[in-house]
Amino acid sequence: MSPTYPGAYPKDITCTYQFLGTPGQRVRLEFRDFDLFFGGPHCPFDYVKLYDGPDNTSAVIGTYCGQQRNLVLYSSEASLFISFVTLSRTANTQNRGFKGMFEFSNSFTKLGK
Questions:
Q1: Which pick of 33, 60, 91, 96 has the fewest CB atoms within 10 Å?
Q2: Of 28, 27, 34, 26, residue with least CA distance to 2
Q3: Cα separation of 93 and 89, whole Å?
Q4: Whether 57 contacts 36, CB under 8 Å
Q5: What is the bridge-based pairing of β-strands 97-105 and 47-51?
Q6: Which of 36, 93, 33 is nearest to 49 (CA)?
Q7: What angle do CA 12, 45, 91 make, to 5 degrees?
Q8: pLDDT per residue over 4-37, tens digit each?
């Protein structure tokens, strides 16, 4: 969950979430609720960025903002890293942030190699 969920999330924060499975596992992440400020298609203000690996030097899966429905993502290996960034703004926004569920499994379909 984002800080203070389901209340309005704070401005000017950076939160990171690291998911580390065991070799052979993949991470499945399902956002049950996703409500961030929408600043445009490239998410220049508040966003959640997912990386396919253990840290923010890993390949980017995607950057998300606004309202997302049925957002389910998988890592290709045993780790996933999330960065949640909000800018310091004077605009009074009341977005809830996000709530997600995750699981580690070695039963997800393996990506082709």
A1: 91
A2: 34
A3: 9
A4: no
A5: unpaired
A6: 36
A7: 70
A8: 999 999 999 999 999 999 999 999 999 999 999 9
